[in-house]
Amino acid sequence: MSILEKNSDIHRKIELFFIIFILFQPILDLLAFIGLPLSTPIRALAMLIGFIYILFKPGLKHKKKAMIYIFILGFLMLINLITTFMFRQEFSLTVEIEYIIKTTYVILMVMIYTYIFKAFSEREDWQRIIQKYVSIALSMIGAVMVIAELTDTGKRSYNALAKAGHSGWFFSANELSAILAMGLGIILLYFISSKVLTRKMIMLPFLFFILWSMLTIGTKVGLIAMLIVLATVLVITLIDFIKNRKKWHNLVLVSVLAVFSVFMIPNTAIGNNLDTKVLDLFQFNNPEKQGLDQEKENIEKQPSAEEVRKVLLSGRGDYLANQWEHYDDAPMMQKVFGMGRMPKLVEMDFFDYFFNFGVVGLITLFAPFIFIGFIILRNIWKSKFALLNRTTMIFGIGAGLGLGIAFAAGHILSAPASGYYLALLLSFLYVYTDKYKNAPKDEMKEEVNK
Which interval of the chain is the signal sequence (predicted)? Predict the structure, then answer.
């Protein structure tokens, strides 16, 4: 075997590794929960393997730009580290490096999976395999959540006793909510696209588990995402039914899932927490009083806009104001290159990027997202909107939810567990729209119906 053939074989094995790596995400998160320090090293190793893949595989589109960007990103992270060391009184090298790795992980995964999916898209069934593997990963999460519920071993989502909910055997409720929010559309797409009724019946219990899990975690993110995705898929199945009456079973099954989910809301953790939120709005002005007496006293009192904002943002506005004061007092070098990993994050990823990595860091970190978003929209425009099908809509909604969660609730762009799924969605959309941007509408219809 020649050196060229050996290199080609290695590249194919790396591509297969990253496809199978999708299935290992829940396992890595479980390892983190039980305290085995393997998830971070494995993810760091994946970053290194992906970097080597990009560096040595020939013929990659935009390869030179990608390598220049990675070099600039690494250089800026080094400056950020030096700046933090110079100006921070309490400096922890371990904490800073760990945070930098977590932040750059999502960026590099977007780049790596763009090239992996580009190579994998040569297979005719590439879309189905990716959807299948993400569906299996989410089904594993749903099954673990049910087992944790039955054994009463789930980790509480909130420290406050008034709030209900658990994240099963996963460490972070916020990250788990984000994962299910971004992934729900993919498993539903795989479900309605399957032409084998037996496969649908096997998947149905796991879909119930996932939807129940999104309500049981108890976060607003899970509820809002679930309603948006279910409404979108319901519209898609209704349109399919109108066009082809033989597809009635998808409409019926998705309707059952939607009705089940809506009726479950009052009897799950999110139902309890929504009631608590409403009560908090009326108790906000007098937190020392508790119970029914306070509820009756304030039931007619209209909460102010500021009170509503604080309750809905769960205190993030206070953290934002506090961080802004630190930033305002910081030296110019910290304003440009960042203040490092702050002891308390705002938990709104865009602002955390800004405070922790400065103006230059913010622009650099967002550059890949802006570039990929522009290419996706350009490809849709080039296709004369033929690419506006259920695949791009569902993946697009998943990516939009991920970015929206990153802005409003955090735990995405600097969280490898959840940020990984955002990387998958954006990479898939980039490759999918680039592959079919010049395809005729009839060909796109056949592609959707596969």
Answer: none
